[in-house]
Amino acid sequence: MTQTSARPARTPIRFRGRSFMATVLAPLPPIADWLAELDAVNARAPSFFAGRPVILDLAGLRLTRADLEELVADLGQRSITILGVEGAPDGVLGPGLPPPLSGGRPSGEVAPPDSEAAPDAALPASPPPPARSLILDAPVRSGQTILHMEGDVVVMGAVASGAEVIAGGSIHIYGTLRGRAVAGVSGNPQARIWCRRFEPELVAIDGLYKAADDLDPAFQGQAVEVRLVDDAILLAKLDRA
């Protein structure tokens, strides 16, 4: 008789989020002059951008993909790595460029230091505001990522396939969820996901997730609540009456 040993129970895979303060760079035309000003900052404080998360804000700029590729390369030569892009024109981002971001919460202006002897000048002058909800009046389009670590996210429309909503708290979707909804990423197992029509690619709470293939098809197209119970994703239909 062949003896088999019982396999130990596998610990569920968890994905957790972390909230970091990022520096936002907003280039102004002409870009060559703006880069020269950036070089002056680096000359005064060579390590100002060292290890600092940087977001590129392109709002108001009319850049082609080639222009953006050149700008990202120019910043890379200055040891500035761009983690994401806000306000990019439609069709500009894609493979080989940083991903689109939206939903960030401003924390005030960051003054560049006059020299390496004044590192505190780079810190915000006031503490961040308290946690609050992010309300989106427009649908979340395919390829878009909404990241809000400080509270709930409320989407008044739909979340398209290929889109992603990530929240430190709960997620409320008053349209169809066809993309990915990731709630409680700040370590909040009490977070929940609600949507009017349930057709997701993936749902996750506090690092535990289920992809579309793992979800009960009985909930497809229904108004659904998603919550975490005993380290398991639980779905429940919402009463439409």
TrEMBL record:
Keywords: Cell cycle, Cell division, Septation
Ranges of residues in domain Septum formation inhibitor MinC C-terminal: 136-234
Domain Septum formation inhibitor MinC N-terminal: from-to ranges: 13-80
Record's compositionally biased regions (Low complexity): 102-124
Keyword Coiled coil tagged: no
Record keyword Iron present: no
InterPro entries: CAP/MinC_C, MinC, MinC_C_sf, MinC_N, Septum_form_inhib_MinC_C
One record GO biological process: regulation of cell septum assembly
Region annotation Disordered: where it falls in the sequence: 93-129
PANTHER family xrefs: SEPTUM SITE-DETERMINING PROTEIN MINC
Subunit structure: Interacts with MinD and FtsZ.
Family that this chain belongs to: Belongs to the MinC family.
Record function comment: Cell division inhibitor that blocks the formation of polar Z ring septums. Rapidly oscillates between the poles of the cell to destabilize FtsZ filaments that have formed before they mature into polar Z rings. Prevents FtsZ polymerization.
Protein name as annotated: Probable septum site-determining protein MinC
